[in-house]
């Protein structure tokens, strides 16, 4: 919650709508996750999921905090390089890696292979670059009880009687003397519960035991942990939201039991790849009320922002909000719907608002750090500016407001 004066000044200085990245709180939460895991298994690190929010300021902050860059495309790879990452600190995932795949391998980075065609491509690179050692790991496709078949990773089973795509990938890789298999990776979406995490860990350990004669350099569990949420949002998920401590007790404790007897050097690095887990709660979107209308008994409050700015979360859940009254005569609303500036019928950004609100008021929508600004289409309007709030409440611009030219300069007029 900001002071009214502050909100007025922010609008004056940076325009409306506006994103605010809360850097101080982000850092605190990030360190909390890191330290909670490290207390149990010191050889833990975070590989931050760029796609979730690749705002350079955030990525640079992660780098300052010692985290790796988890990238899933050539574009994200180039961003990590531009930010100054050495290849050894870039975790390269994703089903389509483009020309960055070979560059990353030749620079000594590890590629997490997603499919057999990618494996075959890397085998050819290995034959063409006999003097170089190419480091790879495999993203494995596992069933942890998520209730759907994931399309990512190499199909794999602990059961040795099944010849799987993972078996074939190991066979192809092992045929090349200069390919080194250094780790195992998984990521399973839409399954953030502790039971699924216990299953993840158990299955990953079975696969490590099956395929690795020596201790791998790392085991990467992806992410799929819940973030820390305001109570009003947390309760909409139903059931228990595990804390970082509870996740650490499952994941880091299992790593400690399995590898704790080894020297630090011999232990595999434990990675997770948080995205939503670390960024969702640390970005707000401030949007202004443009009009209030009644249609057939229903009140619609139209904003100068949209669901495109905030991402799917605003359609799926009631975001935590604060209303800042700017002084116009307020109207009492019952069960009003907040809608975006787009011409999409479904651009509802908040349902059932009951309270006082006026044209010109500013609403802060919180918890919009994931798949928001990075997911904003150039649909109808360019995106707005973003500012960063540091730990002592100072602000700086970290993304300029997009212009007409930003949208149209690739089109031929
Ligand atoms: C490979 C990979 N790693 C990490 C993440 C981030 O996970 P989360 O947002 O659950 O922290 C994703 C998200 O989809 C992913 O695909």
Give an overview in words.
- The radius of gyration is 23 Å and the shape is elongated.
- It starts with a helix and ends in a 5-residue tail after the last helix.
- The mean pLDDT is 97.
- It is α/β, with parallel strands linked by helices and 413 residues long.
- Helices cover 32% and strands 25% of the residues.
- The longest helix has 18 residues.
- Strand 11 and strand 12 form a beta hairpin.
- It is built from 14 helices and 18 strands.
- The strands form 2 sheets. Strands 1, 11, 12, 13, 14, 15, 16, 17 and 18 form a 9-stranded mixed sheet that branches.
- Bound molecules: pyridoxal-5'-phosphate.
- Pyridoxal-5'-phosphate (PLP) binds next to helix 11.
Itemize the secondary structure elements and their pairings.
Layout (H helix, E strand, L loop, with lengths): L3 H11 L3 E5 H18 L3 E6 L6 H9 L3 E4 L2 H10 L6 E3 L7 H7 L3 E4 L2 H13 L5 E8 L12 E2 L9 H10 L4 E7 L8 H18 L6 E3 L10 H4 L9 H16 L9 E4 L3 H4 L3 E13 L2 E6 L3 H4 L2 H4 L4 E4 L6 E9 L8 E10 L4 E4 L19 E5 L5 E5 L4 H5 L5
Parallel strand pairs: 1-17, 2-3, 2-10, 3-4, 4-5, 5-6, 6-7, 6-8, 8-9, 9-10, 12-14
Antiparallel strand pairs: 1-11, 11-12, 11-16, 13-16, 14-15, 17-18
Helix pairs in contact: 2-10, 6-7, 8-10
Number of helices: 14
Q: Structural class given helices, strands, pairing?
A: alpha/beta
Q: Please, what is the average pLDDT?
A: 97
Shape, please?
elongated
Helix content: 25-40%
Give the CATH H-level superfamily of the largest domain. Answer: Alanine racemase
What is the assembly state of the chains in this entry? single chain
Q: What Rg is obtained from the alpha carbons, in whole angstroms?
A: 23 Å
Q: How many strand elements?
A: 18
Q: Give the count of structural domains.
A: 2
CATH topology of the largest domain: TIM Barrel
Low-confidence stretches: none
Q: What ligands are attached or bound here?
A: pyridoxal-5'-phosphate
Beta-strand percentage range: 15-25%
CATH architecture of the largest domain: Alpha-Beta Barrel
- CATH class of the largest domain reads Alpha Beta
